[in-house]
Amino acid sequence: MATAGLLFALTNSPLALVFAAVGPVVGLAAIVDGRRGARRQLRRDRAERAEALRRLTDEIDARHAGEREHAWQRVGELGVVLEEPAGARWSGAGANELVLGRGAIPSGQRIEGEASDADDRALLARAWTLSDAPIRADAAAGIGFVGPPVLARAAARAALVRWSAAVRPGSSGLRVPETKEWRWAARLPQRGAEPTVTVVEGEQVTDSRGVIAIATARELLPPGLGTVVQLHSPRRARAEVLASPEQHREFVPELLGLRQAITAAARLAEAAARSGLEARPLPSRVDLAALAQPPAAGRASLVAAVGTAPGGTLELDLVRQGPHALVGGTTGSGKSEFLLAWLAALAISYSPSTLAMLLVDFKGGAAFQPIAGLPHVVGVVTDLDESEALRAVESLRAEIRRRERRLRECGVRDFIELDRAVELPRLLIVVDEYQALLERFDELGRVFADLAARGRSLGMHLILSTQRPNGSVREQITANCRLRVCLRVLHPSDSRALVGVDDAADLPPSLPGRAIVDDGTGPPRPFQSAIADPLHLELLRAGRSSDGQAIRPWLDPLPRRIALAEVGPSPDGIEFGLLDAPDQQRRLSAVWSPESDGALLVCGTPGSGRSSTLDTIASSFAARHGMGRVVRLPANRSAAWDVLMELARPDASDDLGSAPRLLLVDGADVRFRAWPDEYRLAASEALSTILEDGNGLHVVASATRPIGLSAELRDRFRSLLLLRQSSRGELAQLGGDPSLWRADDGPGSGQWRGLRLQVALADPPPSSAPPTANAPRVQAAPAPALVFHPGVSYALVTRNVPVALARLSEIGGVRVSVLTAAGSIGDPLTAAAETESAEVIVGDLDAWAAAWRVWTELKHTGVAIVDGGLAEFRALLRGRELPPLLDPGAAQGWLIAPDGGVERFSWPERRFRRIHPSNPEHATETIASDAGS
Predict the structure, then answer these.
(1) Of 244, 275, 306, which one is at a domain's C-terminal end?
(2) Is 332 annotated as a binding residue?
(3) What is the pLDDT of residues 91-146, one digit of tens each?
(4) Could you say which of 120, 256, 342, 656 is the most buried, measured as most Cβ atoms within 10 Å of its Cβ?
(5) Given this model, what pLDDT does residue 384 score?
(6) Residue 285 phi, psi (nearest 5)
(7) Is residue 67 located within the same domain as residue 82?
(8) Does 336 show up as a binding residue in the annotation?
């Protein structure tokens, strides 16, 4: 309109005013048309929503129908239960949920989203409620029926018949009033057993668990009932769950007439009689001696009577019902006693030649102690001995391989097909506290899984016992353990995981040995396990004492002491001990082959038996080649030096013969540590030369740790024998197997080539022995005593001139002179005749350095004596060659001949007088003493 007015002002044309009139008309028309379109769209949206709600309602109804059908199939409608074969629904004592009638219960269906109107809220309520569904109550918590006696009894009869049709006779008991109204219930097969459900009418009870009560008024019911059913009419009742007010609901009750109840009880009683499930109470104790054991049937069975069930004696057969068994039960349930009775029953029927038992007890080893002495028992593995458990891993694997080879050799595929003449017993492995075993040794769990899969055809069976079956036993094992026994457990899930029903969680703690068994012949059933009293076991052991021991799948651990004579001779080398080879089910000789193995280094902590090992190797070598071929590096310093220098000579093999020789070096890492630096290095070089060149000489050395040797020496040893180490980590660092480490290893225990070792004991070889033919000895002679020859001049270099003069004064036939500090020779100190005396000139290093000309002349014409140290020797002779090593603290020195030869000497023994301190001239005596004292 504004635009039209502007055009009219500019053009003065009436046509512009027409545009001004058209604008409002067009706007009004658009509004009217928009409103009409919105109404049409709303009608379409409402129709679509109604259709969607209808489809959603149909889907909810369809799902509810399936949910309702599944719920009724699970419990069965009362008419179906009465018409189907009696006993078809028998399971166990855990069937405590009873159907009271039909009504609305919460549904499992849910709709996502929020309600926007009343229709939405109605639809949500419809989805969340399942109509015409079973209304159930927990019989174990107690149920009370309140109303007119006719209605209340009819509802109670329906619930009781349902319970009797669901609970297997013998697993639970029933008690009803001794009145004519309940006389029909006397035929129910649960009567006579220990009651778990009690029907009361007009009487009070202190314990409402398992009670079905009938009363005309609510205040007449026993207190503490879990559910109260108020019956208003045959079509209307109200159930109130006292612990959960939100579960109060109206429903149509199930009612059962007296004639229908009588018929149902008769049918159930006949079915129980046909099945041998008459409700006879189980005894609270069964003695194993009172059970008649079935006869053994060769290799075709492994059967034993282990207790009493509702149908009579319970017999378990590991071959037909197994091949393996799982046993569960909490502490105090009688699990260990049941295992003990089962094994004793097997030992009664089967001889050790047909059945061997390996017992694994991870509760300290006491559980199987009463039968450990039976000849059937080939071993008892406990958690107290970790090494034995690890040996069991390898030994069982070896046993599997051995049995596979035996069956292959006999041309059969199954243990049952073996000829009777083949001596191969069944092996029964029993584990008490299997869960504890897995926590400590997971490797054993893998072995048992392999056994579970292959044991049946190999004649190997498992009985695994645990407190918590649910989750502690792997599926690979449970799939092959068809025989299940569950004593009392704390959680229904444990019972359900083992035997498929919750019954074992309801077993009373006052009845140890009461259990549920699933042997595959029918539904799980209760039984009372037998108990083997000590007297019966003692008689069993005595009766089997004359039987031979069963074939063992492994040997005992190596003894801590082995004589060398017990080690068989080996053509391949020098035997020195025994090796434990559980993966081969035997012991092997520990053999060192010098030619192929090279030099041997024995390492171990102090007290581990290093020296004894060297003695054993020396004795074994001497028995083969003669004691004269054994060279032991002496403990004496000078003697050890002489032996090393002799053996390191390039031509040493020419003098010592071509036959094999053995050098023993005990404590190679500390032997040269206290030597002077130059001698220590020279000794290491000499030993390295011996190791490298050999010259027909084999070397065995010992050390605490290889790191104590130089790198050059370590590389020369090609074989390492590991004795006890201080820790598992140190053993691993040395290249050993840490699983073989034992903190309590005794002397001689260790490992060799990956196997556990026990070194044999042998008498150490003598330090010296006469040589055998063509086998000269290598030994160091003691340093000869210093002897002065008449007419010979001697130059004596010493650090302590007075001590040297005192020593010379005790030697006859010498004329002694002393060098002055200026290097001149003083007057003789003795008056011996020149023709009968040796001339000895004594001086320290400084004096002889000043008298250089005298030293040079005497060195070439006489004999030089160095009574000092290596510094004096080097200063006067001006050479780098090392003289023979002297012993510390000994009165020794060097003699240097005119031709340059150097020999070690010892001063003659000195004589001293002991003088009384209070009277020097009284009570004197002459004693001998070392020359260096």
Answers:
(1) 275
(2) yes
(3) 765 567 889 999 999 998 888 877 778 888 888 888 889 999 999 998 888 999 99
(4) 342
(5) 65
(6) -150, 135
(7) no
(8) yes
How far is Cα 536 from Cα 606, in angstroms, rounded to an integer?
A: 51
647: domain range?
Answer: 564-759
Residue 610: pLDDT band (50, 70, 90) is very high
Lowest mean per-residue pLDDT among 52-66, 452-466, 684-698: 684-698
Residues 856, 825: one domain?
A: yes
Q: Binding site annotation covers 331?
A: yes
> Structural domain tally of the chain?
5
Cα–Cα distances (Å) from 750 to 218, 600, 617, 620, in that order, read: 81, 15, 15, 19
- Annotated binding-site residue? 619: no
Instruction: Supply 682's token pair.
Output: 């020279």
One domain, residues 60 and 149: no
Residues 6 or more apart in contact with residue 498 via CB below 8 angstroms: 326, 328, 469, 470, 484, 486, 489, 504, 518
Task: Establish whether 329 is an annotated binding residue.
Answer: yes
Q: With contact defined as beta carbons under 8 Å apart, do 461 and 426 qualify?
A: yes
Does the pLDDT of residue 773 top 70, yes or no? Answer: no
Question: For 205-236, what is each residue's pLDDT tens digit?
Answer: 888 888 999 999 999 999 989 999 999 999 99
Q: What is the CATH number of the domain that holds 326?
A: 3.40.50.300
pTM for this predicted structure: 0.61
pLDDT digits (tens, 9 = 90+) for 532-543: 988 888 988 888
Residue 429 in tokens: 């492995």
Note whether residue 307 is domain-resident: no
Note whether residue 292 is domain-resident: no
Q: Is residue 95 domain-shared with residue 238, that is, in the same domain?
A: yes
Neighbours of 932 (CB within 10 A): 15
Alpha helix positions (H), 411-506 = 434-440, 442-458, 469-472, 475-478, 492-499
Looking at the fold, whether 530 and 610 belong to one and the same domain comes out as no
